[in-house]
Amino acid sequence: MSQDTTTPSNDLGWDPTDPHGINPHDDAHEGHFVADWRMQIGILALLLFFTLMTVGFYNLEQWIESSFQIMLPKWINIAGAMSIATVKALLVAAFFMQLKYDKALNTFVMLFCLFCVGLFLTFTMIDLGSRGWIDPARAPQITAGGTGVGLNSASADKNFSIIISPKVNTGGMSMVHYARLNGNKNKHGLLYYRDNDDEATFWEHFYSGHATHQDALDEHNFFEQLGYGYHAATSSANASHPRHGLTPGLFSDVDPAAHTTESNGNDH
């Protein structure tokens, strides 16, 4: 019995088993597009050219800034790099992804996805760009430091620094203790009071709002000298003090009820 090798047919006139079969009634397509190897090599050469152009644009900026001792605005770098990257992305999408030869619906879907991503980034940039309007301290980017990590970055000229936030050298000290030693534009730090032989005044003001434990910078134990080391034995309305150990009489051999009656002089 021989096997039938004829191609199945239907009323539409196309083979449904062919994944690239095209409906002849669709005038927009005549068949599945197969990219020519010469075209692909040409697009690859263009992508490599634009990659070299990106590197050259960066080096050109560096040469201009160093030769003429000027600082180019940041938007020039962003506009140049993003323009070249956009052209490269269009070449990849149009030819390698074959959107140029596909249905327009696929291009619309891709553009809609890019629009959603751009919308998300736009609102994010609005938030980042407006944080300094109310509190200027929130404007710079977040950097390592906080309460436990010291910053050892060298000081940099803000006109030639690519880092948005200012660099600080704490010598390995935590940011909290560094600020406590040096103070700020609103109040003096601990070093100022030490130079004026008035360290007790600093700690008296400090412990008045932070009298929970002795600070690591309090080398002369002003915490105890100023009376903040005293803690009441029992809790009060203003402070709660935990008690450790077993409650007296809780696990004793004496019956608590009998012990109570004996102490009250009552035999019943």
Brief rundown of the structure:
The protein is mainly α and 268 residues long.
Description:
This protein is mainly α and 268 residues long. Helices cover 44% and strands 0% of the residues. The protein has eight helices and no strands. The chain has helices at residues 37-68, 74-96, 104-130, 175-182, 190-195, 199-207, 222-225, 256-264. The longest helix is centred in the first third of the chain and has 32 residues, at 37-68. The model has no long low-confidence stretch (mean pLDDT 74).
Key features of this structure:
elongated, 268 residues, mainly alpha, single chain
Residue share in helices?
40-55%
- Overall, the morphology is elongated
Radius of gyration: 38 Å
The profile of the biggest β sheet is: none
Q: Please mark out the parts with pLDDT under 50 across 5 or more consecutive residues, or reply none.
A: none
Listing every helix as H and every strand as E from the N terminus to the C terminus, the arrangement reads HHHHHHHH
Strand fraction? under 5%
Distance between the termini: 113 Å
Q: What is the number of helical segments per DSSP (H or I, 4+ residues)? A: 8
Structural class by secondary-structure content: mainly alpha
- What's the pLDDT, averaged over the residues? 74
Compile the SSE list and pairings.
Blueprint: H1 37-68, H2 74-96, H3 104-130, H4 175-182, H5 190-195, H6 199-207, H7 222-225, H8 256-264
Helix pairs in contact: 1-2
